[in-house]
Amino acid sequence: MDFVSIRIITADVARLVGFYERALAVRAQWATEDFAELRPAGATLAIAGTRTVPLFAPGSARPAANQSVITEFLVDDVDRVALDLAGFVTDVVAGPTTMPWGNRSLLFRDPDGNLVNFFTPVTPAARAKFTR
User: Fold this and answer.
1) Can you tell me the distance from the alpha carbon of 45 to that of 75, in angstroms, rounded to the nearest whole number?
2) N or C: more exposed end of the chain, with fewer CB within 10 A?
3) Is the pTM of this model over 0.70?
């Protein structure tokens, strides 16, 4: 089995795609006006509109209702990224903080309220987990 992507359901696909294009510094690949994918190294973030939900199962997903998932992205320098995103990301939950497990993390919310974590491993053990 291969893990392929995370999909976010939103009521405003263009707005959320634009946010992630800026935050991730990658361009989206649009399949339809209701579906786009962003492909930073190592992952695919799919963004789909509410009109796609009934194709799977009506009522199975609601936009802007996530309270348990954090989407995470490994970045080279989280402190520099935090400075780059200052003024653009308006809902910072926690500024760059070094976690007990050795990652330095920037936690914020996207326009739909989904939690996003940009992190940089800073201890030898944490760096060893993410050596490319």
Assistant:
1) 16
2) N
3) yes
